[in-house]
Amino acid sequence: MMLLLLLSIPAMASGLISLSRKRRVMEWIHASASVGALIVGGVLAVGIRDGAPVSSWDILRADALSAFMIMIVAFVGAVAGIYAIGYTRLEFDDGHIARVRLFYALFQLFVFTMLLAVTTDNLGVMWVAIEGTTLATVFLVNIHDNHTGLEAAYKYLIISSVGIALAFMGTVLMYYAATAQVGEIGLSWTSLIGIAARLDPKIVKLAFVFILIGYGTKAGLAPMHTWLPDAHSEAPAPISALMSGVLLNVGLYALMRFKAVTDITHAGLFERRAHRDHSAWIGLRWVLGYAWRAVPYGESRAGQIHALFAFRQHPAQVPHHGDSRRAWFDESGAMDRICLSLRNSRSAGFAAIRSVHQRVHHFPRQFCGAFCCLCGDRYRSAHLGFRGNARKRESHVVWASIGGTGVR
Amino acid sequence: MLNSAAMLTLLAASLMLFAGGAAGALVFDRESGRCRRMTHGLALCGTVLVLILGIAGLTGNSFELLLPRILPLAGGLALGLDRLSAFFLLTIAVGVIPSTLFAVGYTRQYRQEQALLGFALNVFVPAMMLVVLSRNVLTFLVFWEAMSLASYFLVMTEKDRDETRSAGWLYMVMTHAGLACLLIGFLAMLQATGSFSMPEWARAAEGVDSGVRSLVFLVMAAGFLSKAGAIPFHVWLPRAHPAAPSHVSAMMSGVMIKLGVYGLIRIGFEWLGPGPGWWGVLIMIVGAVSALLGVLYALIDSDLKCLLAYSSVENIGVILLGVGAGLVFRSYNLGSLAALALMAALYHSLNHTVFKGLLFLSAGSVVHVTGTRITEEMGGLLKRMPHTGAFFLIGSLAISAMPPFNGFISEWLTFQSLLLSFRVPEQFINLVFALCIASLALTAGLAAACFVRAFGITFLALPRGQAVEQAHEADWTMRTSMGLLALACLTLGVAPVLALRVLSGAVNEFLGAAPDLSFDWSNIAAASAFGTIAPLWVAVILALLMLAAWVGLRVYGANFSRRYYETWGCGRAVQTADFEYTAAAFANPFKRVFAFLYRPVEETEIEAHSESRFFVKTITYRHESRSIIEDSIYAPIVATVRRLAAKARTVQSGNVHGYLLYILAALLTLLLFAK
Amino acid sequence: MVLFPELPFARVANLLSFLFLLMSFLLIIRNSLSAQVRMFAVQSGVLSALAAVVAHFGGSRELFGVAVLFAFIKVIVIPRVLTRAVSKIGIQRAVAPYLGTSVTLGICAGLVVVAFYVMAPVMESNRLPTADGIPLAFAGVLIGFFTTVNRRRALTQILGFLMLENGIFMVALLATYGVPLIVEMGVFLDVLVAVLILEVFVYRIKHNFDSIEVSQMGALRG
Amino acid sequence: MLAQIGITIAQWLVVVLGAPVLAGVIRKTKARLQGRRGAGIFQPYWDLRKLLVKEVVIAENTSWVFRLTPYVAIGTMLLSAFIVPVLTTAAELQFLGNIILLMYVFLLSTFFLALAGLDAGSSFGGMGSSREMAIAALAEPTVMIAIFAIALRAGSTGLNEMINRAASDPLLLLNPGHLLAFLSFFIVALAETGRLPVDNPSTHLELTMIHEAMILEYSGRYLALIEWASFIKLFLFLTLLGNIFFPWGVAVTLQPGAVAIGVFALVIKLGVLALGLAVLETALAKLRLFRVPELLSGSFMLALLAVISFFFLR
């Protein structure tokens, strides 16, 4: 029931916001929904940690991994949500009330889709939810409706859609592998993992290729990451924070669910060729990912890392999305690192532990990355007309430094 | 004796003080003065607790703490205190306390950056402390990172300057690279032993393939050496230290780089289990090269803080000689010699913290009042800043290993442990040691020359610039902190028994072998009577003899009248600062002798009057020397990376069709591969 | 209830699969946008017929519903939307794809081979009468994907994406007689929304860049 | 105990008071070799006395470092006189330290002299300081390796033990390592004490002098102290050479007879070395400054060979 409550909070908030007319009302709903989701999510997560997985109907189910994801989504969602109120006040005056409405409604929808993705047991529904995250955010990326925003949003949409469609292909194949073995079956992860040992390894492997490419696109793995720097740098700061802090993790979460199944199926095969094959690929991609991260460094040799400082000093000299872009390349690298650890894991059980550990390690980074972004963007808005004094910005540097502690 | 609960309370209390300082920095970021006093005051109090903790640890108290709820999946937050950790806690405290006190007065100039400075300081110090206390991988990495990043922000205090930004950038890159090395090593050990806990590695290491361990050692040594600033990983150091505010330089140079040595000691002697002799030989070679090149670059640098930074490279080299010798001795089962060598290294690292802190702080006061770091523009400061000058002189004497100051004792110990290498039954190793002795000796001589130059050009003779003539003495907090350090230099030099006692305990516990050294207040003897010294008596007798000389002259009835007259200038009428020997000129003989290394580029332009070429109007002399390491190692790497990055840029072409093509290609490749 | 028991299920399914692939080929060689949209509609029609056939022989009532829904969305709604977009945008000068028709066809033929190669394990293990069509369906996926890469105009790219989607639907249909209804509904909804959003974007691109050539958007580089 | 103190002070007095005579002997011998009559061998004492009664002229630019330096110079040398075994190895006051301490004490005096050279602000002083430090630094590795070579044989770095051990070896001079170490240490001694061919102690031509340039500004009692200190330094170096490498005659007990032999042996050894030095200084010209490093690296190689010979020929 808690799960349902958790999901309904952002969903209802989204609906209510799209119906409301007054800005204060929207803000109020938005803030209370953000905080509410955090509280409910926290209670839920604590409960799961101390006890068994929670499920409602066949569709919703949350185990420890989900609980962890719920915490991330709800927490970053709440922080970014509160921040978003101030942010939108700066960005949109009352003449753009429609945009504000759109912003808040989509923000909540975005949170809803992510929460759904991590709490559902049904792999199909998970797919739908993850595709939903794309659809919810695409207008947010283009909220300013300018050339670059449009370009980023279009690329984001088309690449993500194509990628996620491939993930669906993988889901279908996985479903096929299950039905071929045991006949009619729900497309649920619990049932799948139950019969995983009996699945046809070849088909599961094929399915996993599609999953890897598909959800890999969403998780920003190279070379499917190309949308990432564009979209993250064009989106408004709170959305960037959510996308980096959480969305990539959600993609990875989906990948991990399938990985668990694949690992069991391939338990015998694992040490042999099959493993080597896809590990070689992931290893290659890891290298590529790092080469890739060199890109912004090469772009301006002393530049990007000091974007935060530079923002304060020379607003004109810095490409205006400098820091967010760098952060995104960093995200990409962090994801790559996690995948590498997935690769290194020998057995399925250990894999889960290892990758979760990595994720734990990654989480503060993600989170701080989000902070960095918020601060960085704050500077941007500061130069767009924010009447902050130098002192105020100073404290932001400190916050950014907390964030900086995490990135990398 | 304190029990473990009391120790933990101390730890918690110091952490709370730092947390309070950090919070204060954020809360009072509008009130510069209050922010400054509060953050530094709290950091100071916290560090005093660290000092107590360190002393308590050195007297045999210890604790283990495991908080499985924090960082739950990696074995929890694991802290522990043994004597080695306690010794480094002591080093941290000894370096940080005076620097922080100094900063109270010194950072008054940074009005805008108070919040950042205070915050980063209050993260930096506890992070260093916790690095030393970390007992598992994740704990270590988290605090290692926090330390690196906090120091990065401290370096970036004067971020408005291009020079600082590029220094910070370089520092970041090197830290990154070092961290990557550490990560690789940690992951490999994790894989090999299946444990997150480093003490457990030590137990499991015997079972790990020695090739793997050697590889891990190489990689992790590179990581730690890059933090320690050993050549060839030193490039960030001479840029970052000058760019940082002086108290930060003192902490980084005096304390932070020692944690690289700490890590090296841990992996070399403990975490990776017993290793082959060549580990130590490698470290010794790195140490010898660092010491020699470090001092050679220091010798020709005209930037006062840069000079000190290079001298840190040198001292790290000296420390590494001790560490490496210890590793070699241990691999030949010469436990007591290993302990002696390690003791020398640790003592030198403590001493370096003291005198380098002193030098950086006094250099900081000089830079603070003159507004320049270039020694060529200084001169005559001893008359205007008598205390600071005296402190700098004491620091210079100590760092040049002059008796009766502390540098001499640790260098003497290092020499003894190197000389005792003849007990190693391997001719190749003996020769390596002989060369290391030579390089250490040359280093010592050059260091003396270097600091004669640093002190002489900066503080003696006539002022060379306007800014220097208006210089004034530093304020009381700054002088107090320098005075504390100067006192420590002398104390550790005349009464080394204080430090040796705790050190031999620490080394004994760490290596399980007592150092081959006997000592009391009046005498230190290495390897029974191989080498003896009586530092206290040397100091006392030297002082008495100097006094005796003066008294003797009085008694004899020498002429004590004195007359002041201008310096003889070859018959010139007026003696001005222009006739003074410059820092560049002082370094010139060395430049010529070591020209192969410096590869100096010199240009002389002489403009003559039109009437005759013998009437010179102006002479412009430019000289520049190049770093052989940067030219031959880093420049190619940077060029390659830049070229590759430029190529890689084309991948992010902006064309959505291209992007989709990547995915299609990836899909097809994978499908065909996975078949 | 079996309507045409005399028609062998496998035959019909295979025939419809080939028709599907043919439509894909036709779509990629056409240059006019409206013709492409028509081809897409026909292809979707074929697919919904296939769904109906499978539902009929497989005896799945759910699947009938899916077929109807599919026909409604992909044969009627989406082509309508796209046609409206085409007419709103107005006459566009013909833009050559990156690769010429003959090369494109060659590559697509290669993709079909790849599809057969890749889907071999699925065919091997599948005992359903519809199994033979699976590689064809997957070929449709790859061709759709390739279209998004090869074509410069936003609308054609969307069509490529839709073809890809169709192919996946067909794989699901042939291999497992469709995924559970709730998933299918969600997928349709998502696709529909995606197309609607894309349509909006097409307008915006047209408005902003005065063309719907996607390749013109290259301001954001590495 | 009383004997200990007595012999220690006696040794010290021999060094401190005997040092000027040694300088006088060398000067006299040189003069004779060059066909001059030369001043008497006690002339250095009269020079010192003359300087002590003269007024001190101090450069205006200087600071307290300039005034402290003469005391440091003489203090360090007086200290060193306690450390070096001159007549006997049985005196206990050498507990102060080993040969490494001795070398660092020498370096300490050089350090202050170099600072004083810079303090007056004249080009000559600076030049002298720079060159002096360069030579001191470059001599340092040779010193240490030569010490290493000796310590290897003696199994100790203590001066008494070194001499005792060498004295107990009857085939000392047949040892290649010993001779090589002697040669290298001899060259270093020349460099450290500012003798030809490294530096010319009697020159006062600005551009060629090193040590003298550094102390150019000193006068009166300051100069006396510095001069005296350099006499002691010379004396100590020659004593070290004589006693470590030719240890015969050094008393190993405190019996009056042994000590008397020690005195006699010391006089002989110093006399021979002084003669050698005088011959050398007459025969050799001063090297150009930038050839000095070559000389020193040559001596370094000799020392290293001595070490190698120990390890490979044992």
Short description:
The complex is a heterotetramer of chains A (408), B (675), C (222) and D (314). With 675 residues, chain B is mainly alpha-helical.
List keywords for this structure.
heterotetramer, A: 408 residues, mainly alpha, 2 domains, two-stranded antiparallel sheet, 15 helices, 2 strands, 80% helix, B: 675 residues, 3-stranded antiparallel β-sheet, 25 helices, globular
Strand percentage of chain D lies at under 5%
Strand order, sheet with most strands of chain B: 3-4-5
Largest interface: B-D, 89 and 87 residues
Low-confidence stretches of chain D: none
Helix content of chain B: over 70%
Element-level helix/strand string of chain D? HHEHHHHHHHHH
Characterize the largest beta sheet of chain D: strand count, sense, and whether it forms a barrel.
none
Given the helix and strand composition of chain B, which structural class is it?
Answer: mainly alpha
Q: Would you tell me the overall average pLDDT of chain B?
A: 87
Radius of gyration based on Cα positions of chain B = 27 Å
Q: Using DSSP, what is the number of strands of chain D?
A: 1
Largest sheet geometry of chain B: 3 strands, antiparallel
CA-based shape of chain D: globular
What percentage of amino acids of chain B are in beta strands? 5-15%
The beta-strand count of chain B equals 8
Please tally the helical runs of chain B, counting DSSP H or I stretches of 4 or more residues.
25
Question: What report would you give on this structure?
Answer:
The complex is a heterotetramer of chains A (408), B (675), C (222) and D (314). Helix content of chain A is 80%, strand content 1%. Chain A contains 15 helices and two strands. In chain A, strands 1-2 form a two-stranded antiparallel sheet. The relative contact order of chain A is 0.09. Chain B is built from 25 helices and eight strands. Chain B is globular. Chain B starts with a helix and ends with a helix. Among the domains of chain B are: 276-557, no CATH class; 628-674, no CATH class. Chain C has seven helices and no strands. The model of chain C has no long low-confidence stretch (mean pLDDT 83). In chain C, 77% of the residues lie in helices and 0% in strands. Chain C has one domain. Chain C starts with 8 loop residues before the first helix and ends in a 13-residue tail after the last helix. By secondary structure, chain D is mostly helical. Chain D is 70% helix and 1% strand. Chain D has helices at residues 2-33, 43-53, 64-83, 99-119, 123-154, 159-167, 176-192, 211-214, 220-245, 256-283, 292-312; one strand at 56-59. The model of chain D has no long low-confidence stretch (mean pLDDT 87). Chains in contact: A-B, A-C, B-C, B-D. At the B-D interface, helix 15, helix 16, helix 17, strand 5 and helix 21 of B face strand 1, helix 3, helix 4, helix 5 and helix 9 of D. Strand 6 of chain B pairs parallel with strand 1 (56-59) of chain D.
